[in-house]
Amino acid sequence: MSFNTISVVGLGYIGLPTAAMFASRKKKVIGVDVNQHAVDTINRGEIHIVEPDLDMIVHAAVTEGYLKATTTPEPADAFLIAVPTPFKSTLNKESDSVIPEPDLSYIKKASEAIAPVLKKGDLVILESTSPVGATEQMAVWLAAARPDLTFPGPESSYTDTNIDVNVAHCPERVLPGHVVRELVENDRVIGGITAKCSARSVELYKTFVQGECVITNARTAEMAKLTENSCRDVQIAFANELSIICDKLDIDVWELISLANRHPRINILQPGPGVGGHCIAVDPWFIVSKTPEQAQMIHTARKVNDAKPEWVIGKVKLAIADFLQANPTKTTKDVTVACYGLAFKPDIDDLRESPALNIAKQVAEIHSGTVIGVEPNIKELPASITSFKLSSIEKAEQSADVHLLLVDHKEFKNHAIKSEYLIDTKGVWK
Questions:
Q1: Domain range spanning residue 419?
Q2: What is the pLDDT of residues 391-424, one digit of tens each?
Q3: What is the rounded distance in angstroms from the CA atom of residue 8 to the CA atom of residue 211?
Q4: Residue 89 pLDDT level (bands cut at 50, 70, 90)
């Protein structure tokens, strides 16, 4: 059975590019999202997110009639679920005992939404990053909503002969700003609950994936994505902890890392103000929440990286104090602090889960003087942020007394600022 119509549920930073790639291969694609604004925007041939080259692909797909968006699922041959998996609670930094737990309610709602339009022979793929066992749980929810169809059930009944609807977990591995290219070129992990589920998923993704489709089971596929991001998190935590140690010992951490990396089997990552984004700062908690007794190193890495912003803010406080000591005629209200970079990583506009943005907001909250933000990739701040304003790098250089570099955007690499009162969390202006 071929895949003539594909439905993508959740049209965000992963769902929309995925839908667009299928549509670019002349497949009929139905995108589903609860956000009416997103639906309307896409149906105009425009995009509501920022991703290079995606706007052209979406425009062409909509214009040629291969892609449409709706708020209600319609019948299709394959359904890809790409909805958020947030936390039930946030980490309480005052208590090490609180572990954020994944909230599967979005996946459950998406499953219940597509259930009425499922038919025999369909394929349902969970792309959302999720804890181990989520795909099997999704199959349970689907089975409960559609008792007239058979789904992969308990392990003893995992057979391909008695399953009407195939279910799999196939996580993405893409970098913001490079999603369109990496969706095509990267290897794809295919985790079917049964062998047939995997085979059908490979058939689907080979519509546009040029990388290798590597088959495993659903649980291992779920764990693979979590493992990849947890590994990065642990490596970053080592670099961040090293930066704090070096500051204590009056050692240039970037020089130290450069020297250590000359060892043929050493590759230490670069420290920063913390870890943000939607994967590396999130996925490790899915492992910790499932196996809190076993995931000691992963848990510690999370705490190290979550604590780094507070350390940075402490350095800002010290810089302000040093400035006031050197300028006794001035008060705290006279001191202007400039925060360079607000996105969660270099050369993108995405502010979501950004430690840099959170640091800037916290500095603005505790500092009675002026705080300005410099973010070359956005034109305006979100309406919710009123504690500081945007500025150009040139104006910030002229007006600020204390300079805080948070993100190593290319614009900052090309415009070095020299100041006695500089906190450089990325080693660009050191």
A1: 252-424
A2: 999 999 999 999 999 999 999 999 999 999 999 9
A3: 21
A4: low
Residue 245 lies in a domain: no
Q: Is residue 242 part of a domain?
A: no
Write down the catalytic residue from 27, 213, 225, 361.
225
Q: Could you tell me the CATH number of the domain that includes residue 166?
A: 3.40.50.720
Do 398 and 386 form a contact (C-beta atoms < 8 A)?
A: no
Distance CA 372, CA 354 (A): 17
Give the mean pLDDT of 255-275. 97
The secondary structure element, H or E, covering residue 132 is none
DSSP code of residue 343: S
Based on the domain organization, do 418 and 289 belong to the same domain? yes
Cβ contacts of residue 94 below 8 Å, gap of 6+? none
User: Concatenated DSSP letters for 284-336?
Assistant: HHHHHHH-TTT-HHHHHHHHHHHHHHHHHHHHHHHHHHHHHHH-TT--GGG-E
Specify the number of domains making up the chain: 2
Residue 65 domain flag = yes
Contact 125, 168 (CB under 8 A): yes
Of 211, 237, 261, the residue that ends a domain is 211
Please determine, for residue 191, whether its predicted confidence score (pLDDT) is greater than 50: yes
| Secondary structure of residue 113 in the 3-state scheme | helix
**Which tokens belong to 261?**
């990396």
Q: Please check whether residue 231 lies inside any domain of the structure.
A: no
Instruction: In whole angstroms, give the CA distance from residue 139 to residue 152.
Output: 6
What letter represents residue 57's amino acid?
A: I
**The three-state (H, E, C) secondary structure of 21-47, written as one string:** HHHHCCCEEEEECCCHHHHHHHHCCCC
- 170 classed as catalytic: no
Same domain, 260 and 200: no
Given 170, 197, 279, 339, which residue is catalytic?
Answer: 279
Specify the range with the lowest mean pLDDT, choosing from 136-150, 170-184, 398-412: 170-184
| Cβ 79 vs Cβ 7: under 8 Å | yes
Q: Single out the residue in 211, 240, 272 at which a domain terminates.
A: 211
225 annotated active-site: yes
Q: Are 399 and 336 in contact (CB under 8 A)?
A: yes
Q: What is the C-alpha separation between 256 and 238, in angstroms, rounded?
A: 13
Amino acid identity of residue 408, one-letter, is D
Co-location of 117 and 188 in the same domain: yes
